[in-house]
Amino acid sequence: SKLSDDAFISVLFDIVDLAFTTHSLLPRWQHVTQLMLEKGKGPGIENLRVIQLLEADLNWLLRFLWSKKLERHATEAGVYNQAQFASPGKLCQSAILNKVLFFDILRQNRHYGALIDNDATAAFDRVLPALCVVTCKQLGMPKHAQRFFFKMLRNTIYTTTTAHGRSAKTYSAIANPNVPGQGVMQGGGASLSNYKSQQLPVLRAIERHGTPAVFQHVSKVKAKFRRWVSGFSDDISLFVNELGVRASRLDEDLPISQRLRNAVQLNLERYEEYFFTSGGSLNLKKCFYYYIGFMWTGTEWRYRSNAEMNVDPIVITPTTLIMDAAPQPVQWYEADDAQ
User: Fold this and answer.
1) Secondary structure tally for the chain: helices H, strands E
2) How confident is the model over 156-187, as pLDDT tens digits?
3) CA nearest 147: which of 130, 125, 172, 124?
4) Distance between CA atoms of 44 and 24, rounded to whole angstroms?
5) Partner of 223 at 20 to 30 A CA spacing, among 54, 58, 94, 155?
6) What is the pLDDT of residues 268-279, one digit of tens each?
7) How far, in Å, CA of 32 to CA of 26, rounded?
């Protein structure tokens, strides 16, 4: 502590210890107000970000236990998926660098490949707190601590604050016990850790059942390695390449371009379904993919255009929609944009 007297910190820890042991919340911890901030896209209501403001000592507690202690423990224990770069000791630029290197390797080998960028809709607001009790415990969080967090989310009373003041009316997650509200608070100190813990089974599932990108050193002396995903927080990229498709033996009677397209389609469908089971939903307006292929012009190599690929575009019917809804197209960018 930077305080000259540690009595304040000592009392705070005693309060926290008692609250955890008894699963009891201080009355003031149960009141949260939410407000909206601009994201640089203008003041329109659809462009604002909603965040919740918690009591300072409660948010410090959540950040200390989940964002510091749990994150460090899970990282040192090797529990986190290596593809998730929102972890201690890693940078958001590392996820971008992974994509750049993927494109570089495709260019060097003149192999077919594809990359799908997925963005989540209201990521933290769709987290299932009950599921986090299990997933955070798997990472090493004591059960009584996670149940304390679950109880806090269920008993919190929310108000809304604007420039005109704070709302008189309130709402809570259990206002309707038959349909309880979900989410782990946008802006809370434990939000990212809970979200990542819930995404860990999703990433493991896609690695078990999805078609990977397979890489091999040009000397062919070193063993091949596989990579399925890479991402930072809720921005997840799916990788597929020619070697991965051939190794999976998917649609062996079809041309490689068509086989790769089918693998991309299947990977996206699987990821969307797995993501849905954890409460998530894809924001298709921000999802896009690159389909990489090459052709020799007689003097140089160049990218194939999307039209020259001669394959159908990727479409998907989100699980959150009714099953008879029309499939929605995913944005398809030209390969020469993938620089």
Assistant:
1) 10, 16
2) 999 999 888 999 999 888 888 888 888 888 88
3) 130
4) 40
5) 94
6) 999 999 999 988
7) 13
